[in-house]
Amino acid sequence: MQDEQLPDRGTLWTFTTQSFPVKEPYIGPTDDDFVPYTVGYVQLDDVVTVEARLTEPDPEKLRIGMDMELVVIPFATDDDGTEVRTFAFRPLADTPGEPSS
Amino acid sequence: MKVAIVGIGIHPFGRHEGVSGADMGALATRRALRDAGVEWSDLEFAFGGSLGQQLGHAGSGSPDTLVNQMGLTGLSFINVMNGCATAGSAVAMAANSIESGAFDLGLAVGFDKHPRGHFNAEAGAVGLDSWYGEVGMMVTTQFFAQKINRYMHEFGITQPTLAKVAAKAFRNGARNPNAWRTKPWSEEEILDSRLLNWPLTQYMFCSPDEGAAALIVCRADKAREYTERPVYLRSSTVTTREFGSFEVFSPWLPVDRSPAPTVAAATLAFEQAGVEPADVDVAQLQDSESGAEIMHMSECGFCADGDQEQLIADGETEITGRLPVNTDGGLIANGEPIGASGMRQFHEIVLQLRGDAGDRQVPGDPSVGFTQVYGAPGIGACAVLTT
Q1: Does the structure's ipTM exceed the value 0.90?
Q2: By CA distance, what is B250's nearest residue in A?
Q3: Residues facing residue B110 across a β-bridge
Q4: Residue A100: which pLDDT band, with cuts at 50, 70 and 90?
Q5: Are B136 and A51 inside 8 Å of each other by CB?
Q6: Nearest Cα to B316, choosing from B327, B324, B328, B305?
Q7: Are B63 and B69 contacting, i.e. CB atoms less than 8 angstroms apart?
Q8: Is the CA virtual torsion A18, A19, A21, A27 positive or negative?
Q9: Rounded distance, CA B32 to CA B7, Å?
Q10: What is the span of the domain harbouring residue A19?
Q11: Strands (E), chain B
């Protein structure tokens, strides 16, 4: 076993929205406070494809093949008020990608 | 494979307050016994599928609790839990038990009683760390949506075609007295229903519900002792994912894709049966949502990737088409009580091959049927049946 530094940029392989409230074990706001989000798989060069939250909530603005960049975003708050963050990917500007269908 | 199905029984799918999963399983079993003209005490073995207990769903019960209701005869009873491929796996085990020569007559039964809402998986139960669920990615519907979104991108399937598949399911369900959803919905209504996971809307998805179905199986050479119209199980296969296939609950994937487990399960099922996909007259495919039915058509070998767009536009998967798919409304119209769902597929194929499917009977005396279920985290189970 050895560590390998992964690229922090890649291309969007597929994606979807989470438009309805998710149950536990999700620790983000749920029920009436639920905030819809998007997830996707991002291919990091020819190394690996990873699943992650995406920062762009509008599926119309996401395109398979578009360039993505790693970021860290807050998505939940612990019971003691601590902000919980996760890795995520955001679309890089000026890379429209290919139409998804 | 020299195995026959000589009795079938079903408990209607849907919501049944006050009725336990085992109650439904017992009713389906009694109906199957009556259909075969045998008694519970005649059975040597049973394989019972139910996932509700593993998922912590109250009222579902362990499959072997059926013996409390059916009779403590001492038969061999084995519980089967294999994700959404549970029923297909139970049938495969039952068939293998007969094929091996161990037994002559037995039962494959499945039931479940799930609460409302999407299946709620435990990360630890599928070998993942808890963060995957905590960040909101442990949702099966997200996988279905991401798989069909990629497939649409690669092979030119459009969102209206997803709606066509769901509309067919509801039309067929309206002809099925045991279905849960019996109201036809238009393609426009389906497209306009609430977006759940892009590109899939609410009415394109099946929902967890309740139900049961049962099969009496026996040695093929003894089938005519029980029925004049046996249906023969020519093959029943179960496979798991290979490295690189895109499966539910995958935090990461290698860059190179390999085929889905259904591809291997179907290839093996056709090989063992000595039947070609083109020979199939009626098929029941896992339509957890519209996209799954479309992708499973090609994964099972019924068409090339992308051909579904035109086949569906031409009505070829309708009851009157060249390859009728999900003639009883599939999962979309029946919901998914996991242990029962794949068993329902066998029930429907037997009805169709007997010519007993009533308003939804496939014309032209169908003689070859096919079933397929797909389960998390990457299980395919397929079967070929003939008259």
Answers
A1: yes
A2: A51
A3: B49, B213
A4: very low
A5: no
A6: B324
A7: no
A8: positive
A9: 5
A10: 9-91
A11: 3-14, 45-49, 76-80, 105-113, 195-197, 200-201, 210-219, 231-240, 252-253, 282-284, 368-375, 379-386
Question: What are B87's two structure tokens?
Answer: 């029923």
Flag whether residue A48 sits within 8 Å of chain B, measured between CB atoms: yes
CA B15 to chain A, closest CA, distance in angstroms equals 21
**Record: contact A14-B139, CB cut-off 8 A:** no
- Strand B45-49 relative to strand B105-113: parallel, antiparallel, unpaired? parallel
Tokens matching residue B297? 């058509």
Q: B323 with B283: CB under 8 angstroms?
A: yes
How would you class A46 by CB atoms within 10 Å of its CB: exposed for 0-12, middle for 13-18, buried for 19 or more? exposed
B142/A100 touch (CB, cutoff 8 Å), yes or no: no
Question: Tokens 């194929």 belong to which residue?
Answer: B349
Copy the structure tokens of residue B196.
């759940």
Annotate A54-91 with DSSP letters as a single string. ES---GGG--TT-EEEEEEEEEEE-TTS-EEEEEEEEE
Chain A residues whose CB is inside 8 A of the B196 CB are 19-20
Measured between beta carbons, the chain B residues lying within 8 angstroms of A38 are 198
Q: Look at chain A and report how many structural domains it folds into.
A: 1
Contact at 8 Å (CB) between A75 and B136? yes
Tokens of B362: 């496939």
Q: Is the Cβ of B207 closer than 8 Å to some Cβ of chain A?
A: no
Domain edges within chain B: 3-118+205-380
CA distance A25 to A51: 17
A41 in reach of chain B (CB within 8 A): yes
Q: How far apart are CA B208 and CA B204, in angstroms?
A: 14
- Whole-angstrom CA distances from B233 to B7, B269, B364 are 13, 10, 21
What is the share, in percent, of chain B residues with pLDDT greater than 90? 90
Question: Domain spanning B3-118+205-380: which CATH class is it, in words?
Answer: alpha beta
Q: Kindly report the length of chain B.
A: 387
Q: CB–CB of A40 and B146 under 8 A?
A: yes
Asked if the structure places residue A2 within a domain, the reply is no
**Cα distance between residue B295 and residue B287, in whole Å:** 9
A14-52 pLDDT tens trace: 999 999 999 888 999 999 999 999 999 999 999 999 999
- Tell me if chain A has a CB within 8 Å of the CB of B204: no
Q: Would residue A44 count as lying in a domain?
A: yes
